[in-house]
Fold this protein.
Amino acid sequence: MEFKETYIGRIFYGMRSLLIGLHTTLKEFFTKKVTEQYPENRKTQHISERHRAMLYMPLDENGNNKCIACGLCANTCPNGTIVIKTKTVTDEETGKSKKVLVDYTYDLGSCMYCQLCVNVCPKEAIAFNNHFENAVFDRSKLFIKLNK
Ligand code: SF4
Ligand code: SF4
């Protein structure tokens, strides 16, 4: 009969197993905590700059959005999340007609944060911010006009 199958052996291995478990418990008791008390820690919470939460239109130095209404982002989006309305105007300097942006609508509810739209934009006119608290009770509030 092997030692671990004897009465004393079973007590020995039982105690050994118990001490291994207690050692792990004790070690974790003194390890720095990583659990976040959200939303209580809202003011001190760090969200990574790279987190993709919601599209927005960064402004240029004159306070205008940089969109040239080319439609590439809307055409690239696999979900039809972006809808762009444009109009054609005549450029006063050149006399040529050009498209300008009227409405840039983004449906946050159907966005899957793939970032294809941002990558394809030739003017860096759209980007993701990291404002992640976007829950609403009414889905219609997820349709957001980005050009203000
Ligand atoms: S991140 Fe992807 S799904 Fe969302 S609007 Fe851009 S292309 Fe569409
Ligand atoms: S956001 Fe960029 S890709 Fe989309 S229409 Fe404007 S310039 Fe074109």
Q: What stands out?
A: DSSP finds three helices and five strands in the chain. The longest helix spans residues 7-30. The pocket of iron/sulfur cluster (ligand 1) is lined by residues 76-77, 79, 81-82, 111-117 (CB under 6 Å). Residues 38 and 45 are 8 Å apart (CA to CA).
